[in-house]
Amino acid sequence: MSYSLFVKKDIDGFFGLAIDNLVQLILIVSFCKTLCGMPDELVFGVILPGAAISILLGNLFYSWQARRLAIKTKRNDVTALPYGINTVSLFAFIFFIMFPVYEDTGDPYMVWKVGMIACFFSGVIEMLGALIGESLRRITPRAALLSTLAGIAITFISMDFAFKIFEKPIIALFPLAFILIQYFSKVRFPLGLPGGLIAIGVGTGLAWVLGYMDSGSIVNKDGVFHFSPPHFSGGGMIDLVQSKYILQYISIIIPMGVFNVVGSLQNLESAEAAGDKYSTFSSLLTNGIGSVVASIFGSCFPTTIYIGHPGWKAIGARTGYSILNGIFVTLICLSGLITVILNVVPLEAGIGILLWIGIVIVAQAFQETPKHHAMAVAIGLFPAIAAWGLLMVESTLRSAGTTLFILGKDAFANNLAIHGMISLERGFIFTSMILASISVFLIERKFLIACIWSLGAALLSYIGIIHAYELTPNGVVSVFGCGVANEFSIGYCSFAIVFIAMYFYMRGNDGELNSKKSKNL
């Protein structure tokens, strides 16, 4: 059996994954320059090249890993794990670490160094997570792992891109039609052209013909042709390891590192449910190494296994799409062509592929878990929906020139339980897993295990990993310490009490029933 390095469907996978990565890179450029005051030479000359080297190495590894699995299992349908910059960490590091440091110091180079250290420690935590990752997967029900991903997919991926599509229907719906035909109907287009390629070509043509694009902005001061090779920048971190800023923000860095570990475990479970079982240890270790490499070459943003493997697999992508993505990201980061590309190809032309990815992940959560666990999957969606809802509220308030901090958490008391929304949003990836896991074990009548999960939730609440928060001028931030979310800790303990009582009650009933059966015999 032959194992081709590239197949035609890798082109579709490449376009989707490349657009996803491109969005993250654009956010980095925008946030670093506007919020952190970083000059072009730092953003384009150091941070992006540092990100490029980690993305390239990671994509090459996961492509090799997939090819190795294909040869080992004698299958030619193995799909590489998608990989790129971690979106959640990007926002957390910018708004809760780097921006506050810039406001305090006004020094963009200090901000950059603090960001590098945060990225470095996040990578170390991910590497340590590789040691216990497989154990965590074994004790967590599949419904809990896939439900969390489904919640993220339906909100932060599908809804976000659906809004963008319907914001510009003239140039977005026509390309979307080709994508839906390709992936829903499995129709082969003339000449075997990939649906994603056709969609991007059609969308780009429409955008230019209808005047949505500006030819004068193709080359501008933000998108200039130059070559900036990655270079070692780790020396800039050494002097700041014991900085007050690192100690001040370690409460954000550690939970984000743990968050990345759990997210990667969920993506690995999703890949296994789709038919590709990868080593937890090597995958998580590479994840962590990628973030560490990014930091020592000047990037402030961790890399991770991306959500979406089942979608890329359904598209037909195999190993080549990962290689193409790594090469593409490297070229645009080292050459400064990021904004040039966006000024030529509108995002609306290709985001239908990402909408499809979100749809596949949500469907998988229900299809690849036992049918009677569907309610557990459903309950696990709520925390992610709360997180997305809070993002919408905060974005709307900022656009109106105010914030939750200014209004206070009781501003929506009459029509929106904002306190509950924020509480459910804090640490939502853990809360989703916990609620779904408890639900699975209740469905299975394993009350003792449900009790143990409830006690775990009580502990996480007590120390602030979930539910604890504080309103600040910079937004909602987590609060860590002993007893910071006592109400929730007590609530989860009440869960545990009820479940353990039910465990003994059912045990007694089972014993009585068995006794009666013995007498009858």
UniProtKB/TrEMBL annotation:
Domain of life: Bacteria
Alphabetical UniProt keywords: Membrane, Transmembrane, Transmembrane helix
Membrane-spanning parts: 12-31, 43-62, 83-102, 114-132, 144-163, 192-213, 245-263, 284-308, 320-342, 349-366, 372-391, 428-443, 450-469, 489-506
PANTHER family, per the entry: SLC26A_SULP TRANSPORTER DOMAIN-CONTAINING PROTEIN, SLR0360 PROTEIN
Name under which the protein is recorded: Permease
The organism of origin for this protein: Candidatus Scalindua rubra
Lineage: Bacteria, Pseudomonadati, Planctomycetota, Candidatus Brocadiia, Candidatus Brocadiales
